[in-house]
Amino acid sequence: MTSPLTTSVSGGRWTPRLWGTLLVLCAAMFLDALDVSMVGVALPSIGSELDLSTSTLQWIVSGYILGYGGLLLLGGRTADLLGRRQVFLVALGVFALASLLGGLVDSGPLLIASRFIKGLSAAFTAPAGLSIITTTFAEGPLRNRALSIYTTCAATGFSMGLVLSGLLTEASWRLTMLLPAPIAVIALLAGLKLLPRSEREKDHNGYDIPGAILGTASMLLLVFTVVEAPEAGWASARTLLSFLAVAALLTVFVRVERRSPGPLIRLGVLRSGSQIRAQLGAMAFFGSYVGFQFLVTLYMQSLLGWSALHTALAFLPAGALVALSSTKVGAVVDRFGTPRLIAAGFALMVVGYALFLRISLDPSYAAVILPTMLLIGAACALVFPSLNIQATNGVDDHEQGMVSGLLNTSVQVGGAIFLAVVTAVVTANAPEGSSPQAVLDSYRPGLIVVTGIALAGLLITLTGLRTRRTQASVVVAESPQKAPEAERVAVHD
């Protein structure tokens, strides 16, 4: 069912309430990205005040990733079944409380617990928010514009988080934990008034409890295994057994989903080539960027001696470019289609990452670093909105939460996996001595891997361009409930 708010749009102009709805959803996405980027800079101060070891500090970051990446599939389907508005608002309230808890605790384990709860709540707000957009804004130019603004808020939040963390940590790391709380409360109060009421799915065939348990367990174990692999060893018995357990859980999960009358994930959706390319593209896009940011942060702070704020400002041109292009990308998508924009964006990322290989111990920011940041900013502006549009186009309203959860899972799992791979490559090439040049040389293989990940994303996207030459549109695999209507749905990618 499409929201009644959609009918209030005439002549392509949005009503104030429609803008308000979008701003509430953008605020939640902004907070998710802000929270991820802010905590990294604050880690040294947290460790010093709470007397935490390096391994414990890692879990302040990993705890969030574990809750977020592990529960996204469940969060997306829950939004479909229990109502998107209800799930979004409850999860946003939990996010605010966890933020408050994180800023007040004096214990490492409690801080990690608050981070896990925040990740868990984000696993419900992210797919619920995205599915509210896709069911409120009609497919086509209106939705494309809304999604371009929505995804831009994520990039803006990430960039602002880096800058704000550098400023706030100077006063107290607790401010970085507390800042999201009032923003979340304001968004919650506005959401109570502005968000469209959504009905629960009436025709579902019960709750897929076995699928929910298996899907959540497999994602939690996968993210946990990848996060711990660099420390435990990729070839260690613990890591290998964990991966085998993940494979076993996923195998059973697929069998359960095939037989379930109301599956957590309808596997027929993945018969669409454009859907598969969107999911794989999301993994390559976010995985390459997270790996790149990790290496660049080490390079700037550890080797060049830049402050946290100086480092954050170095990344700012990329975020500023994304923010400035937010209202324009939707129109560009309408004209050129998502595959072309995704391919162009990945090509810019590959060039940007490759150019960064020129770094030295005394680089010129304008000549060496700035071109990469601008290319990555342009790539993010093209790729991220286009991936969201491609993944959600042609999908029935009652499955938008499911697809949104699947896309966000691909983003988080891709980030966790490829960051672990990049970290392992850099660690394997770490020099025995402490020569700055030797340390810099150990970063280059990691940058090459990052470039290779982006190149893989480009190649995957190019297969869609080749397919499009022979088939103008791709029909999404029909839902069992709406099989006769599937023929009318064409994915505009």
UniProtKB/TrEMBL annotation:
Q: Where are the transmembrane segments?
A: 21-44, 56-75, 87-105, 117-137, 149-169, 175-195, 207-227, 239-257, 278-300, 306-329, 341-359, 365-384, 405-426, 446-465
Alphabetized GO MF terms? transmembrane transporter activity
Q: How does it sit in the membrane?
A: Multi-pass membrane protein
SUPFAM superfamilies per the UniProt record, alphabetical: MFS general substrate transporter
Q: Where in the cell is it found?
A: Cell membrane
Q: Which key words tag this protein in UniProt?
A: Antibiotic resistance, Cell membrane, Membrane, Transmembrane, Transmembrane helix, Transport
Principal localization reads membrane
**GO cellular component labels:** plasma membrane
GO BP, sorted A to Z:
response to antibiotic
Domain Major facilitator superfamily (MFS) profile, chain residue ranges per copy: 21-469
PANTHER family tied to this protein? BLR6921 PROTEIN (PTHR42718:SF46), MAJOR FACILITATOR SUPERFAMILY MULTIDRUG TRANSPORTER MFSC (PTHR42718)
UniProt protein name: MFS transporter
Q: Which organism is it from?
A: Streptomyces avermitilis
Lineage, top ranks: Bacteria, Bacillati, Actinomycetota, Actinomycetes, Kitasatosporales
